[in-house]
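INFO worker-7 received task bundle
INFO bundle size: 2
INFO processing item 0
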Amino acid sequence: MPGRARPDAKGQLTVDLEVRNPQLWDVESPHLYTLETRLFAGEEMLDRVVTRFGIREIVFDKDKGLLLNGRPVKIKGVCCHQDHAGVGSAIPDFLYYYRIALLKEMGANAYRCAHNPPAPEVLEACDSLGMLVIDETRLTNSGKEYMQQWESLILRDRNHPSIFMWSVGNEEETLQSRPEGRRIVASMMRRLRQLDPTRPTTYGANNGGVTEGINEVIDLRGFNYNLDGVEPYRKARPDQPMFGSEVGSTVTTRGIYRADTVRNYLTDYDENFPAWATTAETWWTMAARRDWFMGGFVWTGFDYRGEPTPHRWPNISSHFGVMDVCGFPKNVYWYYRSWWTDEDFVHVAPHWNHNEGDTVRVWVNTNADEVSLSLNGVDLGRKEMPRNGHLVWEVPYRPGRLKAVGYKDGRRIVKVVETASEPVAVVLKPYRSVILADGTDGTVVNVEVRDRKGRPVHTAQNMIHFTLEGNARIIGVGNGDPSSHEQDKCEDGEWQRSLFNGKCQVIVQAGTTPEDILLRASADGLEPASVTIRQE
């Protein structure tokens, strides 16, 4: 039914529409509808707006946790900055979809925009792929300028079905426990209720069991770390739903298994964390055992430039990510994937290229019930997998074949890691091999090297050179090394990047004509590789 307004009138026009038997938007089946709104003056169309939206029911229950369309859903979330290897914060749309898809594969179902309003394309990717979102403003402030920013954020984003909470800020330590903080947030919440009465507010509070200040008025209590305050807070405020707005913060460097104090690398195990934080296993075990604790958001989904905690120079990016700045998984990724998905798999770390005489800590992540380990056919024992945990063997190194077998409901799940020899060939793995010739689409191509038997060489550090033929361009390269000072942009046209622990990445952006393009990669002494990418 069309709505009508008088010429030159100012006001709000409401039109009721009925959707019969709607398909609901869900993290597992993110069904979207399209609404087209047209503005006419007589027979002349003056404007047209197309809005994608979803229909879903979300309930925050103090005892049952989060209910999405009537079923309990644990928040398996990550906090993310807008930052990727090769491009920084100037991220093209296709790369947002790539990043959100990587998080979904890990089992994540929620994304916190930390700590500022996201690009609209982030929300579009989350709408399309099924990812719940905390949309967060930059500062907790009710002054005129900041309230305008708050209002603009709500008006811009409120039709996105992925958004399930609004966040009024993060760790305002001089304000959050004071009456002034309470009054500021009450003002922000009052304006939110006018613009969007359907969603609750939260705040990233790093003050543990404190109930005063912002926590008095906020709808959903978000805990930034300080999880020892969760139980006391629940006793004090039993009617307020709770979750971890920022948790974890394991610091790791992909592919490193001995700490390096020169390059400032940390071991790639779930063991190092800042004083204020915990390991992945500690926080998730705590959250998983409490139905009323809705889950949490890991700091962070990906490494990002800056904050190289606990180190400084020569680090130029963080170690917090479950994945590095390229989106290559670290081992903590496999911990989350074990307990955030029902997929049958066994992951064994580390690689199996070490020195004779070393004793290697072998970590196994899986959701299998039991795991047995053997080296070159010699049994190293069978162990029961603790729920939400991991397994460790101390193994004297011998070159060869390390084999883990998981046992789950009568099924055997096998994972083998082998000692690799010297690399002989470059291998290219495109995220997509068909892209749109619209000048904005593109693809990510991941690079590794393999030995003569086709085994990946995880210790390789070769310099890889790239050339691109056709109407498209390379826009960035990276390798996930937090201490690499190589250029992400090669303006002289000589694109190259060294492997870091066996991997690097090149990002290609489409041209404007529908023609095939050819990406070549080479390294001194190795067989080169090429991949054809079709532009349509």
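INFO item 0 finished
INFO processing item 1
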Amino acid sequence: MAFDGITIANITRELSETLLGGRIYKIAQPESDELLLTVKNGGSQYRLLLSADASLPMVYLTETNKPGPMTAPGFCMLLRKHLQNARITAISQPGLERVIRLRLEHLNELGDLCEKQLIVEIMGKHSNIIFCDDHDRIIDSIKHISGMVSSVREVLPGRPYFIPHTQDKQNPLRFSGQYTREAMPRFIKAPEDSEPLNYVNLCGHMKEKPMPLYKALYTTYTGLSPIIAQELCYRAGIDADMPANVLEETALQAVYKAVSDMAAQIAGGDFSPVIVYNGREPLEYAAFPLTIYSDKTSQTFSSISSVLERYYAERSVVTRIRQKSVDLRKIVQTALERNVKKYDLQIRQMKDTEKKDKYKVYGELINAYGYNVDPEAKSMEALNYYTGETITIPLDNTLTPQENAQKYFDKYGKLKRTYEALSELTIQVKEEITHLESILAALDIAMHEEDLVQIREELIESGYIRRKGGSKKVKITSKPFHYVSSDGFHIYVGKNNFQNDELTFRFANGGDWWFHAKQIPGSHVILKTEGAEVPDRAFEEAARLAAYYSKGREQDKVEIDYVQKKHVKKPAGARPGFVVYYTNYSMAIDSDISGLSELS
């Protein structure tokens, strides 16, 4: 999700409600491009994080304290000199620009009241934190940008500050009926172009854009990210990929209503920040509910700061685990590709052995009817007494009938031996493929480093990784997922094959219920009954967990097999996680587990 102008409008409103009138108590610079301001206001203390990091610029309130370096950088020392104990008099955002402006009052060395500005620009790699006087002249900035770096604007001490308008975008807040310079709320500063926009303006803008509608919206109006533009299209009931310049009037009216409604929502400060989850993984966040993701799980928060802190912390966990699992995934993927190629080759060879019975019949028929065949003949016709049909048998005229028959018997024998060998090998290779696919599924649901430790141990025991010389078997601390159904039944989900075996054959009782996605790699799910009668809803929720923790989770419906644990068996010598069962029930169900509570 982009840190767009709407998100910043929500942040600006939140900061106005919490920090306005407060005094800056501490100023720290934990990173070269990051500030942490401690503000006291109304008997409470707040920490405001301002980051101009090129990869992840941020502004939000946090409870986490980040220590600064032993020696404060020059920019931090300058701010301490001017802004220590300064009072925050205004917090605003110009239009929907990705800019937050903090106006600050402080006393100078002579005791005179002065005004300064701290301006935060959230603009990707161009992000910056700029310290200005009351006449918009730059005193200093956390990043210095010279004319050699940017031809648009220099950010250097003594230079005038201005917001560069490089894309000539329109302010979508002008579609709001509340849009006047007087009526704009204090957290949004209306720019000079105060004339409202209307339906005619939107039509003119869209007719000039021979591109998908959602792209036309975010390239025309300030502060809209691609996902918000798609949300506007969804609210208008129009395909986001439809070319903007071919829209009919009814479609344009729907777009106008969606844009103006959202503009009124922003202007009125009607925010309801959410995080959208794709299962357990955070997918998007926004300052208000995203109806485009109505099929996903959304969690609403009272604070946009909480959303940002939670979203990026959870994304960081997912990213870190994926990075740490890269080596394991590569090992498994390489082995899987090798086995799939081997299996395909064996299947082709098996197909070739289908001729073996034909060669056996040829040999038998030559022995039966070959006594009167012309020695120079290159073929013979004979009645196949197995089918009652007359067939033509190719002959080698340099060989006797008996030698031709033996030749065909030799071919039959060779293909028969190949078939018998391949019949066993293909089973082994198929089992290996299934095993490797189950490990990939385990890597997909791994959430913590200890989960990866157990998967690595399985790969070592399976011979895909060598145990480092002299190293002992590692201690396993990863535990299965633990859920509680709506009716209070405990449900356990294995994270990998070792846990699947542990749950099924050591933890579960014979009367407990076992669930698994049908013929798809996935987790074993155990529904504990404790001797009680299980309602249908608990069966459905356990099945949803089996669908979610399988390779089929993206499907609309997943077929789930379920059976009492006592009917699940493990063949001797079978690989971890592999079981057999012969009598079972089945149901097709979705993978929505949003209604289930997970216990730690």
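INFO item 1 finished
INFO post-check item 1: The chain has a mean pLDDT of 88.
INFO post-check item 1: The first strand starts at residue 23 and ends at 31.
INFO worker-7 idle
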